[in-house]
Amino acid sequence: xxxxxxxxxxxxxxxxxxxxxxxxxxxxxxxxxxxxxxxxxxxxxxxxxxxxxxxxxxxxxxxxxxxxxxxxxxxxxxxxxxxxxxxxxxxxxxxxxxxxxxxxxxxxxxxxxxxxxxxxxxxxxxxxxxxxxxxxxxxxxxxxxxxxxxxxxxxxxxxxxxxxxxxxxxxxxxxxxxxxxxxxxxxxxxxxxxxxxxxxxxxxxxxxxxxxxxxxxxxxxxxxxxxxxxxxxxxxxxxxxxxxxxxxxxxxxxxxxxxxxxxxxxxxxxxxxxxxxxxxxxxxxxxxxxxxxxxxxxxxxxxxxxxxxxxxxxxxxxxxxxxxxxxxxxxxxxxxxxxxxxxxxxxxxxxxxxxxxxxxxxxxxxxxxxxxxxxxxxxxxxxxxxxxxxxxxxxxxxxxxxxxxxxxxxxxx
Length: 413
Prior knowledge:
This protein is an alpha+beta fold and 413 residues long. The protein has helices spanning 3-17, 21-61, 88-92, 131-135, 158-164, 197-200, 208-214, 235-246, 261-264, 266-304, 306-314, 319-355, 362-365, 376-398, 406-412; strands spanning 65-69, 81-82, 97-111, 116-124, 137-140, 153-157, 171-176, 182-192, 203-207, 221-222, 224-229, 256-260. Strands 1, 3, 4, 5, 6, 7, 8, 9, 11 and 12 form a 10-stranded mixed beta sheet that branches.
C-alpha cells in the first residue's frame, strides 16, 4: 500500500468521526453527486425507453424493412409483385432476420348506420406473425386466416371502434373507391389498442385474400414484403444485405425496391433523434454541477488541512504525493456519491417500470405511462464517465497544494 493512499484512508476515517464545517460541505458535495447521477440515470432510462417503445410500435404496424414494386408510390394503391419469390427462403434464413411477411394495403371507407371513417386495410396471410397485435389486444381474439377460404373477420383499433361505435361481433360495410366502386361486409373479431394514435386511427387488419380480390390481382400477388430484424441498430447493414439478396430483375419484369422504416416515417424518427440532444444537455449540466460541487469540497478540505500539508512537505513529501492524497480522498467521496446515486436512480426507475406512477397523455406522447429502459451498459457507462470526468476536473484545483509551504502552514495556524 502506498503511503498516499494510507493517509487518504486515515482522512476518510477521521472525517467520519469528526463534525464541523468541512463535513457539511463534503456531505453536500456527495449529495450533489448522488442527485446528479440519479437524474442522469433516470433521464437516459426514460429517453431510451421512450425511443424503444415508439420505435417498436411503429415497426409493429409495418416492419424494419419493406420490399415493394419499384413503380409503387407513397399512396395506398400499390403495384403488385409476386408473393412467391426465388429469394424468399434465403431471406428468411438470413442471420439477423426475424420474420418475412407478405401484405397488401388498400384505402377504404368504413360506414355504420351513424358514422363513417376513412381507413387503410392491411391484408395479411396465414404466415403472419401476430406477436405485436397479441400484446396490444384488448378485446376479442386474433384473426384465424387459412390458405383456402376467405375470412370476413377483421382486427380494428380501439380508436376506430370508439369512433364508429363498434364492439366485438358487430358487422360493418367498407366501401372502396375504384372503377367500379365496391363494397364488402366485415365482422369485428378483435380490438387492439397500441396508443399510437396516428396509426390506430388508420389501420384495420384483414384477410389478404379479400384485398387481392378487390384489386383483381392474380393469386399470390401482394403489395410487398415486410422484413423484421433482430436488432434495429443494425438496420442500415441489414437493409444492404436485403437489397443485395432480392433487388434484381425478375422473369416477369418486376423491379423491386427496399426501404427501411426510417425512410418511410422520417418525421417520427427525426423527432426521436432530437431527444438525444436533450439527454446530452442534461448529462453535461449534471456532470458540470457535480464536478463543481466536488471542487468546492476539495478546496475546503485543502484549506482545512494546511497544517497537515506543511508537515508532510517538511518530512520530504513532494507536491505530487500530497496532491495524490487529496485526489484519493476526493475519489472516495465521488464513488460514495455515485453509489447512492445508483441506488436512488435505479429505485426510481424500478418503481416507474413496475407501477407506472407517472402517467402521460397517449394522444400527445403515444404512451400512457413514462416508459423505462434500464440497460446495464448505460448504467456502467454513466458511472465510469462521471467518475473520470469529476476526478479530472479536480486535478486542476489540487495544484493549490503546490503553493503551500511549511512556513505558510505555520503562519496559517
